[in-house]
């Protein structure tokens, strides 16, 4: 039986290092190629030796698909393609293709220049890797090869984020990547049509959360920032350069404008302006409101938000700083955090999810004494706030997407095992489909039962639909045809055409039965009695009395002769073909019982 | 399969295709050459145009002098300009299911179709097509509505009257189909019926037909369309270009294996080389400016203007034009310049790469930043303060009948220092200039039409090999003015089928197959039999379900088991129901083996007689005979059902079922 196999190399019951292998109709596809923020050793990248120990990856993979530019979805790509070695196609959307190399370079710099690691991918490798990338449009059907096709849908999570449908033969899989089912200040909501995939692979970051309205969260956020600034404190908001940062910038920009606030807002890296440029140039990927008004007012040109200089961190007085990276695991956000952590007037707002092992995760789980490099202990006195602004679907959103796509099976990745378990039960209960949640390295096999597409000759189809003009639900019409199977082509034709095509002639099988009837009357009178009898019994059939004295019931022929010896007995010859056997045999048994007594 | 041809204009097509059970309109171009018969609409009171004498017939009658005016030796209609609509009577346009748009120039009649014909379907177009198409319509509506005309002339359209008019009015065709411009509410209503699509997106129509837009290389978001079912493929090629300008290159490969290829929108200037024309454009512009004159470029607000600005960007410093202001005047100038920068995905590779940096794909961003290019919604307002001469002005409309261009023609026409350079190929420049004559201004004709020429067409057709080509009749003969140029027509085998306005073509192909799906349970129950090496057969008896034009075959339902407790019904009550049909039989019966089989099954008195065509096998005791011939077997027996069934099964052993 045909099957689809799924093996997560990363993001199986975990968040980070997304990398999922899918085998479908003989094709192997790798979904995402991410790094894990929680590890600094080998575990930060997926274990590609699972795919092959010594062969070339290109021989084992038909294509690689990257869902969006976050490093936990694309951070291992240069390592995978240039250091392990893969030369096949890599697909991503245009914005992802534009932004991904910048984040990779950023990541490389932090790892090599700041942490001093060697054996890491180089700038040149990032460039070479990006040369293998093929950019795709939304909804474009990309033919990877003759059998395999992929199609991107809007996912809303960050600029350029996409869900992908992978289709081979009659089977299909949808991989959501990260997605968001509610539009926010700069992006639209994820959308997919009723494509009924055999399998939907969904992220499940917020598997158990049902988030309150966006408006409330925004109000909360603004209130906290405002209060801190009012009492002279500093607010640190660790973000990733692209994505949430822009949404929160728009939010603060409008608030500052409205409240006429004076405290400075800074954005840390040199990436800011560049990042905003991407948003301007890819404005077609943002939400409808921004797209509509961009000619009059570009939402990504900020008046109140300025570039940050490292020296500003020591300035007295209140300020708000957006700094990268978002999980406080390295870089500028971590530096600023160390400077400000000791003062209880200050506040750090974590606007997104933090993976295990990061400083962000530690302070969010309540840890207030952190061991930093060199055994130094950092005491955290500043206020720590968590606000889920990361644009993932919550439980409601995940269920909504399943309802939209109507998959036959669901598989959860990119979440925590416990929360997944809860969501899995909910999905199975509500949709009556199987739901899987494999761990990393564990293979899930899904059996599909595809129907088989066949070419039917128009003649046969027309004949059948003509008969069935008034379809009767209780008595469905049967269609009879011959399936010709030749070199992988399947054609359904009428039996006559099949014979003709194969150069065969029909062999006619005919039966003639003698039925004796006691009837002293003249032959033609006997025939008339038989005719009237049959006409009375077989109301739905075409019974005819022909001029030559014979009777036909549909194609069955009945003739009467006198018995050679006995004048009181008539012999009825009932003759039919094999194709009408049911009726023929029924008629003989009917006539054998004789004619009814009263026939006027 | 029919094609209804609603427009005779080869570059502004409007065809309706009846394909399987769907009705598909391909483009709805608006023929605006009709406006050349009208007087220009001046933005500022023009003493010259307002004092024109009314036209008087030869016999002295003056009843038309309000409608027709004499100007520069020609007669023009003094009225709101009107456009020539596609045919609306050839078929009921409310039955059109979908409209496919190939580029923004070919959608200008959309509001007339969607708002006036009872159309209830969907329009498909790419995002740049819609956005820029909206800008073109906005500009059109704006430039006509801002000069309100008191009267709209209709008397001259009377057939009897029209006969008496001088050319070209006398020869104007379909004047009864000429209509005034639509309004913005109608534009908005029309555009709201559009569904956005991307290149290579497969769109299912009613389960019967799939349509797919492909990049055509001509303009931002311009597309050719594939219309196909599982077995037949129609390619609609409209406005395609193989030149490398700003749009994504043309997708040729996907046009292969078409049964029919409909070819429209070829270059209107087959003898001009676009590159050469751009060169001439630049040098004429430079020369005029250097001599202290102004340059007027009548143009559309999107399209070739991007390429011209890019050329100028590279050219102005070397030509010493750095201090000359460039003005782009259109109610949609700003939007057009802004929109051009956000369609990275629809641009050629080089421009895409710039966006990845991230830099704006078009250098006019830099021209604007450095104040070399300024844009204004109209000549009123800021422009009048900033206006410095000599300068270069890009503005519409290319017909010179409405828009800000009319003002500049009046303003600059009298000086031989100035130059008007025609780059848009849609209007004859001499006709466009007619109401402004006599002119002192220099006129340069540099039409830039990047669409396919006949050499490229013949290469394309060789490459994609369609079975049949359908095209407007203009492409099947040399241009009327160059009748010796037999190279300026389509040459292919078999010769193209041509169409003209208001014709209905029957497209030459016949379907023979349809897709059907066999459900897995039914597939499992089939028993394939190898008939010849590599060919297997299986008989299929199944229930056919058809929904949304999709056919599915399912296992027949199991007959309900008769309840065991009931008394067996009498035979006569049990008239046979619709049972599975018996298969056809094939093969022949070897008599010797058949007789052996009979004997093995207990028939002891078998006798065989030879006949002319075969044999007769006699079972004497049972008074039964079996005639066996090459292609038939006839069992004649007494009414002994068990015997008949037994003999039947023995015969069937030797035959194949179909």
Task: Please give a structural write-up.
The complex is a heterodimer of chains A (600) and B (658). Chain A is α/β, with parallel strands linked by helices and 600 residues long. Helices cover 30% and strands 25% of the residues of chain A. A 7-stranded mixed beta sheet of chain A has the order 6-5-4-3-2-1-22. A 7-stranded mixed beta sheet of chain A has the order 7-8-9-10-11-20-21, covered by helices on one side. In chain A, helix 3 (77-85) crosses helix 5 (123-131) and helix 4 (94-114) runs antiparallel to helix 5 (123-131). Chain A is elongated. Residues 564-574 of chain B have low confidence and may be disordered. In chain B, helix 3 (127-145) runs antiparallel to helix 5 (184-191). The longest helix of chain B has 19 residues, at 127-145. The two termini of chain B are 34 Å apart. Chain B has 658 residues and is α/β, with parallel strands linked by helices. Chain B has a 7-stranded mixed beta sheet with strand order 10-8-7-3-2-1-24. A 7-stranded mixed beta sheet of chain B has the order 11-12-13-14-15-22-23, with no helix packed on it. Chain B folds into 3 domains: 2-37 and 50-268 and 451-506, Metallo-beta-lactamase, Chain A, CATH 3.60.15; 274-445, Rossmann fold (3-Layer(aba) Sandwich); 585-657, TATA-Binding Protein (2-Layer Sandwich). Chain B is built from 17 helices and 34 strands. Chain B is elongated and about 120 Å long. Chains A and B meet through helix 4, helix 8, strand 23, helix 14 and strand 24 of A and helix 8, strand 25, strand 27, strand 28 and strand 29 of B. Chain B: Residues 305-433 form the Beta-Casp domain. Chain B: It is found in: Cytoplasm; Nucleus. Chain B: Belongs to the metallo-beta-lactamase superfamily. RNA-metabolizing metallo-beta-lactamase-like family. INTS9 subfamily. Chain B: Keywords: Cytoplasm, Nucleus.
